[in-house]
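Homework help thread (please don't just give me the answer)

Our assignment gives two proteins as sequence + structure token strings and asks us to describe the second one. The first is just a warm-up. Here they are:
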Amino acid sequence: MPVNFSVKNVPDEIAEKLRMRAKRHHRSLQGELLTILEEAAARAPIKTAADVLREVRKDGLSTPSEAADIIGADRDSH
């Protein structure tokens, strides 16, 4: 089901740039904003807990205490 969004207090300069961009692409402002949102959502990676765990293990960490030790050592070195 579609959802309605509202963005308040958009500075005039940004609103005008968006209007010009919409005109360049032969779209309404609403159509341009929807396209921008679609493009941003398509680029945004969605990570699962398993993805994050894989990344952490790739960096050589296997337990939370190891991560805490590394962070503590880094903090103490400054």
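The one we have to describe:
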Amino acid sequence: MAQSGRKLVPLEGLRGIAAAVVVLYHLVLGFTPKGVGVVPHGYGRLDTLLQFILGLLNGGAAVAVFFVLSGFILSLPFARDRRLSRVLVAILKRWPRLAGLTCIASLIAFVLIRWSGHDYKAAADIIGAGWMASHGNAPIEPEHLTWWGALREGLVNVFTRGEVDFDSPLWTMRIELFGSFAIFLAAPVLFAIRNWGLRLALVGLGFYLSGTQYPQTYFADFLVGTVLAMLFAEDRLPDISNRWALPLGGLAVYLFSFTYEQNLRIHALLKTLLPPGDTGHFVWDAGAALTIVLLLGNPWLRRAFSKSWAVWLGLLSFPIYLLHGPVMLSVGARSFLSGLAWLTPQSSALMAAGISLAVTLACALPLVWVDKTWTGFLSRVTSIFTLRPVPLRVVER
């Protein structure tokens, strides 16, 4: 298995692609009047295909990929070490690992918001973009926000209350933190049990207890990752030939394209089977699980996703995810308004989207170094608590 350090490179590439989908999804929401829910007309038989392609810009499905990947990666260490000290250190380490960058992102968002003011409202009125008008579904008055509020939100409130006044994509962090805690408690037990029937019964119980209401229901995503981690650790994932990779990949794409907003006939059966509530993520979990199995089980895909591009995309994924929203709603909005002096609204929106991407990438690059340095520091600090005691050996003279 191709690895970079202790990471599975193909899965890092998948994480990066999921982050890119979220960014593109928000770009469409922010700089077009109808977002990804638009139903194309006038292209004949291509109308349905175009709607399906737009459906692949599915931010919700990409977030489900994040959660399933977290369940997988966070569970793996417990395949070989299930000591209580390992569990406690994992729990204690998780919040500072996430809060280090969420705090920085919230402070950057504060600076951008105070600089751009109400530009996002002015841009949204011209574009007709509801997502931008609502400041990414987190309505604000810039003059009421403070640096102290940004610091408090990035360190605490985004995790405890789900507050996202400064950086709306951070709504996932509360689920990420408590989903991680659930996995740190569940994975050692599941790995210790050798009977797969009992394992799956406990996982089913976890699904039942997670329910279908936000945000608890998303804990099920992490459990899907844990099941995959157990299969991987015990070498039970199937080898998949190229002959089967193509139809299975098509099935994964089909699952990722599912949304409640679209009314494609190909999704009718899924909508019939799903229980009421916030349940679309169960479909995306299946797509994420199938994609992971393909990336780890098909030699060609494993090689393709083990290149340096996958390493870099994985490293950039978290910083890009954290920063793209505030950049779009500030730099992007102001760029759009400035461009109207010499461009049509459509061309100015396209230019603003490109500038948003460039600025997000420029800001994300130094955060990659910050993230690596911070996680390395946390690992060194906590390593003393997870070292196995070395037995003394008596040397006869």
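TA reply:
I won't write it for you, but here's a hint about the kind of observation we're looking for: Residues 3-382 form one domain.
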